[in-house]
Structures are given as C-alpha cells and as structure tokens.
Automatic annotation (TrEMBL):
<dbReference type="InterPro" id="IPR038460">
    <property type="entry name" value="AcetylCoA_hyd_C_sf"/>
</dbReference>
<protein>
    <submittedName>
        <fullName>Itaconate CoA-transferase</fullName>
        <ecNumber>2.8.3.-</ecNumber>
    </submittedName>
</protein>
<dbReference type="Pfam" id="PF13336">
    <property type="entry name" value="AcetylCoA_hyd_C"/>
</dbReference>
<dbReference type="GO" id="GO:0016740">
    <property type="term" value="F:transferase activity"/>
</dbReference>
<feature type="domain" description="Acetyl-CoA hydrolase/transferase C-terminal">
    <location>
        <begin position="282"/>
        <end position="433"/>
    </location>
</feature>
<keyword id="KW-0808">Transferase</keyword>
<dbReference type="InterPro" id="IPR003702">
    <property type="entry name" value="ActCoA_hydro_N"/>
</dbReference>
<feature type="domain" description="Acetyl-CoA hydrolase/transferase N-terminal">
    <location>
        <begin position="8"/>
        <end position="189"/>
    </location>
</feature>
<dbReference type="Pfam" id="PF02550">
    <property type="entry name" value="AcetylCoA_hydro"/>
</dbReference>
<dbReference type="InterPro" id="IPR026888">
    <property type="entry name" value="AcetylCoA_hyd_C"/>
</dbReference>
<dbReference type="InterPro" id="IPR037171">
    <property type="entry name" value="NagB/RpiA_transferase-like"/>
</dbReference>
<dbReference type="InterPro" id="IPR046433">
    <property type="entry name" value="ActCoA_hydro"/>
</dbReference>
<comment type="similarity">
    <text>Belongs to the acetyl-CoA hydrolase/transferase family.</text>
</comment>
Length: 439
C-alpha cells in the first residue's frame, strides 16, 4: 500500500463519524452548488437536530436542494446559522418565514465573487470545509471537479477539511486539487450529481441574444452569466469562429459551443488552447465533458475573476444580466421588491476585466420590462444597491437595441437608455429625467 493509499485508509470513515469531528461553535465553509456533499450535510443536520452540536456559522454561495433539505432547514437555523454570500430561492424562503416569526433566519454577507476566498479565510476565518470531490489520483490528490471557486483557498487554511468522495464528480485539470495529507476525514458516496435545469427562454431572450452576438467578433474570449438570456447568446454564436472561454461559470451553452468547434481557444492571449472556469452547473453531459478533458482548466475564483487577469485576454467579452438600469447608467442585479434577491456574484469583476482588455467589451442585458410588462426595467433611480456603478457600465442591451455608454454625457446617456425602454414607458422616463435635471 502506498503512503497515499495508507493515508486515505486512515481517514476513511462514515458520514456520522466525520460530522462528529465538527464541534459546536465551528465556522464552516460549505462548497458551492454541485460541490455540496449530501451525505456529510445530512449527517451534520442530524446531529444538530438531535442537539449534539450547535452555535455553528455556515458560509456559502449558491445553495441547492442538497443543502435546503439538510443544513438549511428552517427549524435548524437557531443551531446552524446560514451566512449566504449569494441568495437564491432557499434563502428567500428562509427570510420570508423568519419575518413571519419575527426573527432572522439567514444572514447575508455582501461581497464580490473574487473576494470570497479572502472573506472566508481571512475576514471570517472559517475552520472547516465540507465539499464533494473526485476520487483520489495516484499522487494523492482529489480534484474539486465542478467547484474550485473558493473551496481551494479554504482547503489550504482550514483546520478541518472533510471531503465526500463521489466517483460521479469529474476529475478536472488545472489548479484545483487538495492532497490527502490536508484532509481530516473522507467519506464515500456515489450519489448522482445535481443537474441544473435550463431556464426557459422567452422571445425577448432570442432577440437580445442576436443583438449581443452581433457585438461579438471572431476570436473574442467569452464570459457568460447564468440564465435564459446568456443561453440565448450562446445559441446565436454558432456561426462565429475561434472564440475562447474565460468564465466564472461553465454552462451547457458554452460546452455546446466547444463541441461544435466554435470555441477553440486558438486565438486566446492568456491560456491559449484552454477553456478556463472556476465552477460549473449543468447536466450529466456537461460533467462528462469536463472529466479528464485536457482543454479544460479549473482555477480558483480569486484568479479567474481577478480583473487584472481577465484583462490579459484580448477581445474579452463579458455578458451578464441585470434587474434594473437607471438613467445614470448604473445597474442593480441583486435586489428586487425591497429585499436581497441574489447577489453581486462576479458581475463587476468581469465588467472591469473586460473593459480593461484590449478590444474588450462588457455587456449588461435585460428585458425592457418586468412583471408581465407592467414595470420598466429602465428606471429613473435604482430600487436597490448599484451592483455595477455607472462609471463601469459599457454596453447595455434590451430587445429594443444596444447602446455604448462610454464617452456619453449624462444627458446623452439618459436619452440613450430611455430609447432602450418599452415605448409606453418612455414618456414617463423623460419626465423623470427632466425633473432630475438630466435632460
């Protein structure tokens, strides 16, 4: 038996025994998305429910049903306190139920995605990592597979690294591994990986996707966000050539462009020949594509989302969705109906990186209306925080067209953005712009 195999055998245990290593008062980082380990999270939730552990602070981005059915159950939030760096449906439900009971059930931590490793390891000082990984290789390394993001940084500083080894997790190349010598406990669980359903596309998505595709030149390097709109952009790019990928999230739409020979990375100026990402959510075919694929490289989010690194890709194009754009040009992509809806994620990271790239473009897109056409997404003033400040916004696109805000005076900006609104809202926006002294 090799030293690596011996270490593995020493650390191999049951989910219940591994969860028992986590004391009350622990500060845990839970892996993002597909990396959330079902057996470990159930064992921890069972211990909390039985009163054998408590006073735990749980930090994470992008929770899934795996967490929602275990450690993020409402009745456990007095023992396992959720600290979300990116809200979703689970956090919104927890907040709503807590408000009904007059208590807080989830805590939001504002941060950009690039900052997450530093926030978790330095500011918070998490002491435990829970993550799903691929089986150990001959050198004693586990791959974080779909989820390098902040897990890699935490694995290098946490006192307790507890891993769930799943043969369904792809082994991915790049800077994305943790050695068995750093691991406190290993459990094995051959559970199917979570698969993310694609967001349904609306007619506006297809129009916007075509407009954005026309802004993207052959040889550009892409970052795509999540949702029906970025998927529509990918669908509209199949006639392009020699595109590259440097993206925080690897989506099925991007994988399909790789499989079709549209994304070749041949003209990339950083990591030529390689598609670089920090996490992935998709279907089984996406994960199969990732497994031991030499053209794919997973790297930590504080590298992938570093604007200075992003800018080293010539003709970098970032495409992200937003919820509101105000007449100054600022975007709110995380706040809706008076409450935190999602989070900033990596939007500003890529806006700034693409803007600094030679020949780069950052594109923010949205439908012109919300609430079945009853509300305009082009507004006089934002209803929440500015996810992307006006000074950083480059292109804005709706189904009514695209505008390049760079170099425009504030009055010309306001008029250009009013032109992106649905016609029935334009007169009202003009009145508000005049009242504000913009035009």
């Amino acid at each position: 038996m090799t030293d690596h195999a011996a270490l593995y055998a020493e650390r191999l245990t049951t989910p219940e025994a591994a969860a028992a290593l986590i004391p009350s008062g622990a500060r845990i980082a839970m892996a993002l998305g597909v990396g959330q380990p079902p057996a470990l999270l159930k064992a921890l939730a069972d211990r909390a429910e039985a009163g054998r552990v408590g006073d735990i602070d749980l930090y994470y981005l992008l929770s899934t049903a795996i967490a929602g059915e275990t450690v993020l159950r409402y009745e456990l939030t007095d023992r396992i306190r959720p600290h979300s760096l990116f809200h979703g449906a689970i956090e919104r439900r927890l907040e709503a139920r807590g408000a009904q009971d007059g208590r807080r059930a989830v805590w939001f931590v504002p941060t950009g995605f690039q900052q997450a490793p530093s926030v978790l390891t330095r500011s918070v000082g998490v002491d435990t990592l829970l993550a799903t990984v691929s089986p150990m290789d001959a050198d004693g390394n586990f791959s974080f597979g779909t989820n390098t993001d902040y897990a890699l940084a935490v694995s290098r500083t946490a006192r307790r690294v507890i891993l769930e080894v799943n043969p369904n997790m792809p082994r991915v190349f790049g800077d994305c591994t943790v050695h068995v010598s750093r691991v406190a406990a290993v459990v094995e669980n051959a559970a199917p990986l979570l698969e993310a359903a694609r967001a349904p596309q609306q007619s506006q998505d297809l129009v916007i996707g075509g407009i954005i595709a026309d802004l993207i030149e052959d040889g550009s390097t892409l970052q795509m966000g999540i949702g029906g709109l970025p998927d529509a952009v990918c669908a509209a790019l199949h006639d392009h050539r020699d595109l590259g990928a440097h993206t925080e999230m690897l989506t099925p739409g991007l994988v399909e462009l790789m499989q079709a020979g549209v994304v070749t990375n041949a003209r990339k100026t950083l990591h030529p020949g390689k598609s670089v990402f920090t996490f992935s959510m998709g279907d089984r075919s996406t994960y199969d594509f990732l497994h031991e694929n030499p053209v794919m490289e997973a790297r930590p989010v504080d590298y992938v989302n570093d604007p200075a690194v992003i800018a080293r890709n010539a003709r970098m194009v970032s495409v992200n969705a937003t919820l509101q754009v105000d007449l100054f040009g600022a975007c709110c992509s995380e706040y809706l109906n008076g409450r935190q809806y999602t989070a900033a994620g990596g939007q500003l990271d890529f806006v700034r990186g693409a803007s600094a790239s030679e020949g780069g473009k950052s594109i923010i897109a949205c439908h012109s209306t919300a609430a079945r056409g009853s509300a305009s997404r082009i507004v006089a003033r934002l209803d929440g925080p500015a996810t992307t400040p006006r000074n950083d916004v480059h292109y804005v696109v709706t189904e009514h067209g695209a505008v390049d805000l760079r170099g425009l005076t504030d009055d010309r900006r306001a008029r250009a953005l009013i032109g992106l609104a649905t016609p029935e809202f334009r007169e009202g926006l003009e009145r508000e712009a005049r009242a504000m002294g913009l035009i």
